[in-house]
Amino acid sequence: MNRTQTLRLTLALTALVAATAGAQSASLPPAATLLAKYATAIGGPAMLRAPQITTRGGLLMSAAGINATFEMLQLAPNKMQMVTTIPGVGAIQVGYDGTTAWSVDPMQGPRILSGKELDEIREEADLRAAARVLELFASLQTVADTTMGGEQCYLVKLTWKSGRETYDCYSANSGLLVGSRNVQQTAMGAIPVTSLYTDYKKFGDFTLATKTVQSMMGQQQVMTITAVEVGTGVGVAIDPPSEIKALAKPPGGK
Amino acid sequence: MSLRNQLLIGVLWAAGGCIPPPVARAPVPDRAQEILGRGIGLATFDSVWTVVERTYVDTAFVATRWKSVRDSVRPRAVAVTTREGLDSLIVETLRRIPDSHFYIIPARIASEVRSDGNSAGAGEGTTGASVRITGDRALVWRVEPGSPAALAGIAPGQSVEKLNDRVVRTSIQKVLSLPDGSRQRAFAELDFKLNGQLSPAVGGEVRIRVVNPGQSEAFERSLIAVPARGTISKFGNLPPVAGVVRVFRVPVMIAGSTHTGNCVGTIAFNIWLPALAPELERAIDSVADCRGIVLDIRGNPGGVGAMVMGFAGYFVDSSVSLGTMRMRDLSLNFAINPRLVRVNGVQSRPFRGPVAILVDAMSASTSEIFATGMQRLGRARVFGERSAGAALPALMQVLPSGDVFVHAVADFTDPTGNRIEGAGVVPDQIIPLTEKDLSNNIDAPLEAAIKWITSTGSIRADGSR
User: Fold this and answer.
1) DSSP string spanning B408-428?
2) Inter-chain contact A193–B5, Cβ cutoff 8 Å?
3) What ipTM does the predicted assembly reach?
4) How far apart are the CA of B345 and the nearest CA of chain A, in angstroms?
5) Element (H, E) at A196
6) In what helix (H) or strand (E) does residue B312 lie, and over which residues does it extend?
7) Residue A23 CB neighbours (<10 A)
């Protein structure tokens, strides 16, 4: 482990056990405790040590007859690229190189993301996001003892540094993430999404939900992870596609 | 790790539905005789009813008339045992809904798996003829050179008396007897049905009885469908479609002009499918030096709605909205993405010359969203005939019967807040089809658009002059 990685891990673990200033209902467990338990359950420290993670799987929206595949590459500390290939449509690329966030699809063409879309992808691209490292959030609050996907869970409101708000629900038994609610930013506007996470499996040192059922606007899509690989990150880069590089230049720029 | 949410629904949008009901395109053999499993009829009816109850934007309709539909139709669903009976019941049920984009895609069509590529053997058939209703007649509108229709002597301007067993004038009279408010879409639906009959599966036979212009004696021909030309694309549960992009440079004389711009580019395409996106970009680039561009979306029934945001970006240089889709608890915008770069990474900019859009009664859904948006933004002038008035974003649901239910989930309003559903896009210059023009191979809307382009001052990509 190099010095940077060691420092990153140390900071993250410190943050994991730090108490938050968010107000908690007296009968509900503190949000920071729930997040720390979750991070431990999924192998958060191992995740934070990984220089490169590649995840592959499928995306199915059976009502529409769409069966896509995806491959996501993440490079520490905060780079991400996801390519989703949809039959009859082609490849949809989304990425963030630490500075610029982009989307390229055959229908809308290339876009450099800004505003809330940029905030969202920048925060998600951070490898610490998956381990719910506390320093990513402006505040946390456990807001309810509820049920998602038939499992009792504690609903936590997460206010990210950008100001966006999402909700996680952590199993009262296992501590794993059972479900979440957020508002996903798209080119057309914000779309509320509810996700349920099941079928947790171990991939090396991580434990991941291999099935995510997402509901939005009365439709469901199922995301299934089939493979996770941890790499060294050596010689691997995430760069914007050529269209995005051209977009980022001033008109007529070289 | 944190998986990025890739919402397929963002792709699907308005994918929804903008394709005419496939039952009008190609009947599925042996479907009617199929015996359904126990309880399938009722479960399917309940599923259709519930989806509408849960998602249809007209909540007043749902609260009143839709509940009475359940009360009157559901008891009969219990007794349905055949596919034919179920089809009839569902069609009757969906007819009670006053808006477009409520129809069934038969399971066999929805599950057909075809990859993009050449149309050979793909089953998408055509006789090469298309028709349009004008007044109380249906006229042959276009005939593909060398097609079965052309070889059989079918020609533009002929009046169609019968298509298979359908007496065309009787069908038109039925529509003419409808109240004003529902006539526009009913005409469009009949147009789609007639043209669907002319595009059966490959090898299918169509009997057509026509009268030549100025004559009274009819003659009948039997046409056997051949594979449709174009890029066959299958997107999700939507039926496979042969997409075609045609681009021409029409030389024009412009006073005071020397070389550049002495042409008008015309780009015609028959469907909004992502598979055509690269071809459309090449088409635009190939006429970008012309003085103006005519976008011919006559007969284009729609497709993947999300495409309008990227396509409009070839002509508009700001992220304005082509319109808004409103669901019960959510509004989304068709925000234009200005195309400042090409797929090869070369910088570009939106076309800045005048843009004309040609529409007719078979321009529907995504085509209407595009045409009305561009018109209302002041970026294009629309020529032709009023469009179908069937412009609602829709999604799909698989039913217990295995069929796929396409259902509108949102209303759509143009940038000025006007609803297109039922009303259609009204051209700036209405140009009715005439027998004389068609028989003389005169494309009056195209000619009017070219004349406007050659005579007008240029319109900038932000819509101002």
Assistant:
1) E--EEE-TTS-B-TTT-PPPS
2) yes
3) 0.86
4) 4
5) strand A189-203
6) helix B307-312
7) 10
**pTM for the whole structure:** 0.87
Which residues of chain A lie closer than 8 angstroms to B310, CB-CB?
A: 105-109
Instruction: Please state, rounded to an integer, the average pLDDT across all residues of chain B.
Output: 86
Tell me how crowded residue B361 is: count the other CB atoms within 10 A of its CB.
Answer: 26
Task: State the pLDDT confidence band at B22, using cuts at 50, 70 and 90.
Answer: very low
Query: What is the DSSP code string of B11-49?
Result: HHTTTTT-S--GGGT-PPTTTTTPBPPTTHHHHHHHHHH
Say if CB B426 and CB B271 are below 8 A apart: no
Please name which of B198, B197, B214, B192 lies closest in space to residue B133, comparing C-alpha atoms: B192
Residue B14 pLDDT > 50: no
- The pLDDT confidence band at residue B106, using thresholds 50, 70 and 90, is confident
Contact B265, B249 (CB under 8 A): yes
Nearest residue to B124 (alpha-carbon basis) of B41, B225, B38, B47:
B225
* Structure confidence at residue B444 as a pLDDT band (50, 70, 90): very high
B429 and chain A in contact, CB less than 8 A: no
Q: CA–CA separation, B119 vs B141, rounded Å? A: 24
Residues of chain A positioned with their CB less than 8 A from the CB of B12: 61, 64, 66, 219
Does position B433 have pLDDT exceeding 50, yes or no?
Answer: yes
What's the DSSP call for residue B62? I
Which residues, in sequence order, are CB contacts of B282 under 8 Å at separation 6+? none
Q: Which of A66, A108, A124, A203 to mutate to test the interface with B (most CBs of B within 10 A)?
A: A108
The amino acid present at B277, given as its one-letter code, is A
Find the residue in B nearest to A221 (Cα). Answer: B8
Alpha-carbon distances, residue A204 vs A81, A207, A230, B151, B452 (angstroms): 22, 8, 9, 67, 67
- What does DSSP say about strands B125-126 and B226-227: parallel, antiparallel, or unpaired? antiparallel
DSSP string of A49-108? H-SEEEEEEEEEEGGGTEEEEEEEEEETTTEEEEEEEETTTEEEEEEE-SS-EEEEETTT
pLDDT at residue A64 in the model: 80
User: Rounded CA gap, A20 and A35, in Å?
Assistant: 11
- What tens digit of pLDDT does each residue of A58-110 get? 999 887 888 999 999 999 999 999 999 998 889 999 999 999 999 999 999 99
Rounded CA separation B3/A225 (Å):
10
Name the minimum distance, in Å, from the CA of A107 to any CA of chain B: 5
CA A166 remoteness from chain centre: 11
Q: What are the two backbone dihedrals, phi and then psi, of residue A188, each rounded to the nearest 5 degrees? A: -90, -10
For B110, what's the count of Cα atoms within 13 Å in the CB-facing half-sphere?
22
Distance from CA of B440 to the nearest CA of A (A): 38
C-alpha A193/C-alpha B46 separation (Å) is 26
Predicted confidence band of residue B226 (pLDDT cuts 50, 70, 90): very high
| pLDDT value, residue A244 | 96
Q: Does pLDDT of B121 surpass 60?
A: no
Contacts with A193 from chain B: Cβ below 8 Å? 5, 7
Please state, rounded to an integer, the average pLDDT across all residues of chain A: 88
pLDDT number for residue B211: 97
Question: Which residues face A59 on adjacent strands?
Answer: A68, A223
Residue B141 has pLDDT above 70, yes or no: yes
Which tokens in the block code for residue B152? 């059989």
Could you read off the pLDDT of A28-54 as tens digits, one per residue? 999 999 999 999 999 999 999 999 999
Tell me which residue of A141, A130, A136 sits closest to A225, measured CA to CA: A130
Cβ <8 Å between B274 and A191 = no
What are the tokens at A32? 């920071």
